[in-house]
């Protein structure tokens, strides 16, 4: 990348005078650069430059968006990093769901690499598998199935098995 392009990208990310849209999420104001967000994923492009009410506004209230998940999305766009260590399981699930809703493939790929499913509860993994199955996130589904395979290699735990959804049991037993 040329020095000029690098400087331009840094300026777009850091110059607050270029932040031209304000999101309000759960009472918190988050000011961002409209163009940078639109370039990051299909959802923001449609919202901010499409034939929508939001495209004409400089202040957008997101009523049903989880604040911590939204802040992580913005941080990923601006810093190309996603720290998840500080998120509770519910917040992490909200982040995965939001990345999917936003059709933010790069963030989903980053999360899939960063998340070690063994560090999370069986309940979390069951909910994640069910969500990924409905959302047709094949790579995520495979990661979850591998996690459940590992559980059965070590021991069959009746309490854990009772937490499995019908869909998960069917998919686990249908494989070779």
Q: Tell me the quaternary state.
A: single chain
The CATH topology of the domain at 1-83 is given as Potassium Channel Kv1.1, Chain A
Question: Which bin fits the share of residues in helices?
Answer: 55-70%
Architecture (CATH level 2) name of the domain at 1-83: 2-Layer Sandwich
Largest sheet: 3 strands, mixed
Low-confidence stretches: none
The gross shape turns out to be elongated
Task: Tell me what you see in this structure.
The chain is mainly alpha-helical and 176 residues long. It has a domain at 1-83: Potassium Channel Kv1.1, Chain A (2-Layer Sandwich), CATH 3.30.710.10. It is built from ten helices and three strands. A three-stranded mixed sheet has the order 2-1-3. Strand 1 (21-25) and strand 2 form a beta hairpin. Helix 2 (34-40) crosses helix 3 (42-49), helix 4 (67-79) crosses helix 5 and helix 7 packs antiparallel against helix 8. The longest helix is centred in the last third of the chain and has 17 residues, at 138-154. The radius of gyration is 19 Å and the shape is elongated. The termini are far apart. The mean pLDDT is 92.
